[in-house]
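> call design_seq(struct)
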């Protein structure tokens, strides 16, 4: 019989969040076994994930601390301004860092590049065993520990299991964790475009009643990532439109802000929804990333929330290990849950509210939105709050409450 492999933590799911957690744990001296059923080569292929992500400045500092700054930094495009507009003729609001030295609001990365660099780093770290493709056929969690049997018969054990399996997390379901979820009846079409005017490192978010239209600056010439939300029933026709007609439709929605658009990548469609796990811990189990919560991409915060989960869980576990604690200790896990609850609920609630507010059509709703944009533009604590959120700085809410006139 094959020997049981022991590690400090077993992570199910080698997505962007799972890999980040593994690197953070390893940097703190813990050993990790990571299991993912996906074909590793297919996941790095050009057409696998056409998304690009806005990585907030706080997430970026974490990636740098994990030693990824030199391999990733030159591939990211700094977001120096976020321009939020109501259609192409309504009010607009600009978020610009206030002080010199504040740095950009975040960096735009193609997910494919993020995945490649994280994967290479995981493969290079001696404390991480990447088991991929591999499937957990049986998982047992009890007071003694976690025991995982893989479909090929190999067996693993650890004091803690982390589910980073994405939105449909089978482990979360198996643990019986309740999830609040709803669909927005919207899909996002994601692709990349070239344009004839420079993007000037500006992220554009233009709100239409059918859904937000975002053009996000990419490195390497006049290029942007497109995240275009629309009614789910309209997405199939838009995806099959010929490339030129699609680019012309997108250009119309952009108001010509970066000039003529040319499609340069395949289009993918993502159904949009919201989910939030009622708890992110159970016996010897912690959830992170989309396994714990999923939000509308309207504010580009989903991956950033996952990065913050990974950072918080790693810190709690590394401190626990230094104090000689069992890594599945319920008190340790409760600390992780307490730490993450407010941030995830706040960002999820704000994002859901924004999605609904900008999704309502009619003149009254338009007037409210324009009023809202005007208020945020004039009241500096509110503007500072939204900028801090874009940067991923936790604790922005208490500062906002302190700064607002009473
Ligand atoms: C259109 C769109 C645009 C977005 N833009 C942004 C943005 O700009 N900024 C931002 O912060 N966020 C953004 N997001 C959100 C972000 O993409 C997700 O939050 C993030 O990718 C979640 O990462 P994850 O690692 O938790 O999950 P996933 O990326 O889903 O990874 C899950 C991993 O688990 C594996 N897996 C699945 N089942 C199992 C199993 N049973 N056992 C083991 N492994 C398993 C999968 O193979 C996969 O590798 C966007 C989302 C969408 C839909």
């Amino acid at each position: 019989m094959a020997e049981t492999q022991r590690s400090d933590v077993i992570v199910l799911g080698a997505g962007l969040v799972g890999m980040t957690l593994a690197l953070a744990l390893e940097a703190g001296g813990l050993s990790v076994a990571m299991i993912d059923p996906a074909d590793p080569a297919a996941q790095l292929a050009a057409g696998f994930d056409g998304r690009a992500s806005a990585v907030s400045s706080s997430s970026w500092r974490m990636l740098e601390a994990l030693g990824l700054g030199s391999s990733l930094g030159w591939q990211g495009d700094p977001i120096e301004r976020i321009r939020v507009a109501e259609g192409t003729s309504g009010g607009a609001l600009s978020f610009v860092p206030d002080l010199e030295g504040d740095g950009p609001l975040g960096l735009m990365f193609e997910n494919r590049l993020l995945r490649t660099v994280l994967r290479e780093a995981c493969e290079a770290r001696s404390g991480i065993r990447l088991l991929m493709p591999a499937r957990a056929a049986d998982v047992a969690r009890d007071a003694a520990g976690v025991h995982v049997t893989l479909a090929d018969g190999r067996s693993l054990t650890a004091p803690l299991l982390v589910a980073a399996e994405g939105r449909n997390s089978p482990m979360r379901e198996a643990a019986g964790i309740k999830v609040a979820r709803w669909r927005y009846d919207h899909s996002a079409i994601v692709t990349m475009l070239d344009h004839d005017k420079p993007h000037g490192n500006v992220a554009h978010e233009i709100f239409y009643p059918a859904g937000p239209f975002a053009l996000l600056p990419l490195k390497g010439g006049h290029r942007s990532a497109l995240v275009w939300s629309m009614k789910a029933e309209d997405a199939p026709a838009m995806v099959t439109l010929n490339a030129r007609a699609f680019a012309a439709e997108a250009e119309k929605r952009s108001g010509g802000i970066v000039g003529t658009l040319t499609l340069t990548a395949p289009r993918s469609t993502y159904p949009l929804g919201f989910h939030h796990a009622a708890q992110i811990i159970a016996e010897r189990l912690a959830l992170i990333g989309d396994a714990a919560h999923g939000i509308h991409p309207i504010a580009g915060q989903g991956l950033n929330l996952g990065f913050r989960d990974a950072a918080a869980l790693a810190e709690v576990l590394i401190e626990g290990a230094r104090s000689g604690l069992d890594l599945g200790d319920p008190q340790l896990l409760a600390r992780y849950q307490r730490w993450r609850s407010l941030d995830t609920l706040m960002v999820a609630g704000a994002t859901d509210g924004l999605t609904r507010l900008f999704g309502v059509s009619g003149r009254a709703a338009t007037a409210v939105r324009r009023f809202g944009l005007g208020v945020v533009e004039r009241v500096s604590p509110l503007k500072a709050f939204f900028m801090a959120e874009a940067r991923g700085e936790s604790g922005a809410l208490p500062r906002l409450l302190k700064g607002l006139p009473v």
